[in-house]
């Protein structure tokens, strides 16, 4: 099917883009980045925006790099940019693993980091990364600029805190310290399909081998990805073990609130959390 008629706007700068969006947003004007979600929706007549503000010509939105203690990612950076580590240390390796779970190669070459966050699909990998890592979003409009924490940016399935006239210009992801170890697990029906459950774990251990800091998040199960504070507290201060990881998986399963198929999704959460903890712990053992 073909998309319904629309007017195409192609600004050359971010300032021009926000000015254009301010004018067309009241008419349901939309921002076009990678187009991997919006264009199929238009072809199916699920979405009918009469104006598209195409930001693909704005060079600054396609830049990324390490600045200080953070990785700064322009909203237009393609998924494929992370196939190789885009940051030093554990964060670069983590993102290079997660990106391989995003759909298929053609989509990764066109889909964008910021577009994935703005689409806010609960089954998407980057929103989970943003929440667990405490990423910060930079939203820009003709009215000015504001910064939002990832947990405040993601409001629900396909819903964010962006106003209709705002553009996500970039995302700041804190780097992980060199001694951090991570684990990522995802379950999908087939490779490239939407995730049915995901878990991301980041651990640091003290000199005695106890877990000194833990970040444990799940995605693909609830309306938005989130960290599981109760599970993080449960494992902190304890020595990693298979028994501990099984206990953490059970605690995570009990703490989650699946949108559908509750029994099945809780079983998946139990599995992915336990496996992600085991993966993170084994990285620590290899580094010792």
Q: Could you list some keywords that capture this structure?
A:
288 residues, globular, 3 domains, alpha+beta, 10 helices, Uridine Diphospho-n-acetylenolpyruvylglucosamine Reductase, domain 3, Uridine Diphospho-n-acetylenolpyruvylglucosamine Reductase, domain 2, Enolase-like, domain 1
Concise summary:
By secondary structure, the protein is an alpha+beta fold. It has ten helices and 14 strands.
What does this structure look like?
The strands form four sheets. The chain has a five-stranded antiparallel sheet. Strands 11-12-13-14 form a four-stranded antiparallel sheet, with helices on both faces. With 288 residues, it is α+β, with helices and mostly antiparallel strands. Strand 13 and strand 14 (226-227) form a beta hairpin. The protein has helices at 14-24, 38-43, 89-98, 105-110, 113-119, 125-133, 150-153, 229-235, 242-255, 262-287, and strands at residues 7-9, 30-32, 51-54, 64-67, 70-74, 136-141, 144-149, 154-156, 159-160, 167-174, 181-187, 197-205, 211-219, 226-227. Helix content is 35%, strand content 25%.
